[in-house]
Records
---
Amino acid sequence: MRKTADCREFPSETHCTLAISGEEEEVVRAASEHAVSVHGHTDSPELRKMVRDSLRDEVPQHA
């Protein structure tokens, strides 16, 4: 099951709208890197756990 992380679900001064989807480990890595580079967080096991805990199952889009 693909997972999704969506910045719109978190309070942000920049009103970031980025959404990332893919396999769980890919999303955790990419969302953590985004949180560090764009939002100024520090990369840590706690950040990655927070990201992992916030993931949602991706809703398939039907053609």
Note: DSSP finds two helices and three strands in the chain.
---
Amino acid sequence: MATAEQLKALIKSHTSSNDEHFRTVALQIAAHTAKQGNTRLADELRALVEEGRRKQATAGTPRAIPIARPSGELAGLVAASYPNTRLIDMVLTESIRHQLEEAVQQHRQRDRLRTHGFAPKRRLLLVGPPGCGKTMTATALAGECQLPLMFVQLHSLITKYMGETAAKLHVVFDAMAETRGVYLFDEFDAIGATRTAGNDVGEIRRVLNSFLQFMERDDSDSIIVAATNFMEMLDDALFRRFDDVIRYSPPNSKAIRSLIESRLSSFTLTGLRWQKLLTAAKGLSHAEVARSCDAAARTTILGGDTTLTGDQLVQALSARSGMRLHSPKSRKKTSHD
């Protein structure tokens, strides 16, 4: 029979309408059932999953809008995808979860707000250290709102030629009105750096002023998400243009435990000594803890098992910490100490 964690994962994926995760957990339950000797039930479960997959492929899943496929000049400026990630897949503080759920709710009821002369929250600034979930937040917002994620590619957007970056920004903002989506400006400090910065001040001012003007004029139904690791570098004028500033921080012990339990919800976990796990995870970001969980999960799956031990997880976390210690930045810091 299914474990308690597998049942919880099944219910979570159902309530969040995450069909792919639902099927994955169902197949894991089938494998667990077969291992216990009930091959008939396992075969029936697999057949039901496959039947559901065929029906969905035949009927198609209705979307709010068709998948966006950038063309022309826009094709080199944004990369489009259609994520299935939901907020339930993320480990967030109550404050951040409330801010994001509020934005999603307002987007879903934007017509109602507009009939009363108000616009929904649709301009979000995400700030915090690397790997704390800023990019995944944009992905989850797109999944929740059933919108394409339009990842603005800064390497194509920012050029050395005077005025060209502003012209390309104009193309992106025009696209927001034509194709509703979640437009992500990652590493936003490249655009929004303060106008008092010492490097090429004139061009920085022109690009930032253009962005501020486009933000003022934009009245589309698209969601704009800007993410940065360096809030202190942003120009003060930017903060007035965003509806909400969401601050992320490295995971504490509670968040690490929740992340591990959530990421490995489809496995049977044994021999967990949380203090040892938390010690091994100390200093790691959300993304690094998630990747450690994935590494331990892959080892378990390839070993033909669905039971993951605490020692396997500690080993994966310690390996990830070792990568950080041997990174060029860490070596440089150590040499200066």
Note: The mean pLDDT is 81.
---
Amino acid sequence: MEGVLINPSLSRLKFSVPNLLHPSSSRPIFISHRSFPHHHPFRLRLRTPSAFFQDQIPQKGKENDALEEEVKEEDAYGEVNRIIGRRTVRSPVFANDGSVTTAISTEYLVEWKDGHTPSWVPADGIAADVVAEYETPWWTAAKKADAEALSSLLADESISRDPDAEDPDGRTALHFAAGLGSEECIKILAEAGADVNKLERAGGGLTPLHVASGYGRPGAVKALLEAGADPDIADGRGRTPLELVKEVLVATPKGNPAAFGRRMALEGAAAELEKVVFEWGEVEKVVDGRGEGKYREYLVEWRDGGEREWVKAEWLAEDLVRDYEEGLEYGVAEAVVGRREVEGGKREYLVKWVDLQEKTWEPEENVDTELVQEFERQQGTNGEKVSGEGAATQETAVG
């Protein structure tokens, strides 16, 4: 059992501990005098009075005196070397109303020169300059996205580095790397075990993926997704990374040369997210719709025969949504059997339907691309060219 009391002085490592008093005396059991090693060696007086915790009842007479003598004999001194580790401590706090919150604090692992086992010490018990010697290299590297420095710090086996170390706002080095778009730093931190889904405590409660998305860092978005980042986690306002980047896009003016690069970057980030958020499939037809505004959804039928699904309006091609809203009916095309040129240099194709006997001429944009390509392939094989008047001939040849 170790205990110390603060001995305030400049550049000294200080400790905050319970006021452990001898059962029958107001004299502190433990007293420490320490100063930062770069100025002069500092020492910690350690005592381990095991009998103290065996009996908390005040002793009298010779037994009490004997205990005091034992404490004096167990005095030991050791010089502090450096901070060699850091950890975040989360403790439940119970309120009078029965609610429970979490208190978050930081502790540092202190290495002693005299061989004592390294000890964990609360951050508020350590002088700022001592903490800075350990913390500054890490946060400097993180906030500059210095991959070489981060890699070197993590590789130093003599000092433990927590890749999930948090700043006062609960942000980690990965949040900064994501915001700066450093794919290399993201990879280094992820390989070191950093939590790619860490939510910051301040700000908007963002994950690194939210940060990379909101800043328009498509490369960082891709790197985070490859490292296992979850694109469905919501931030403090209930937004997924994709919803966040689209919100930022809406707020970024179009047609403004100064904002052009910004929009391109945001669109790139959105595209990377869409690759993993959406399972792309070809819609056969829109069957039904529900909801209004941003909550509008459509029930779609997939071309590959999968089960019908409700899909958000923003995920569907604009022409599909427009056709449904305008009341256009869908049919299942079997083949293209003819082609003709129409006014304006455009083309129309004669479509044979699965559920209709009558073939109809349809604008090129309304006809399935694969059916058109198959028709054109056969057209080339047969060596035939079809005009508006000759469409029936081609229909006979292909149909």
Note: Confidence is low (pLDDT under 50) at residues 1-60, 67-78, 387-399.
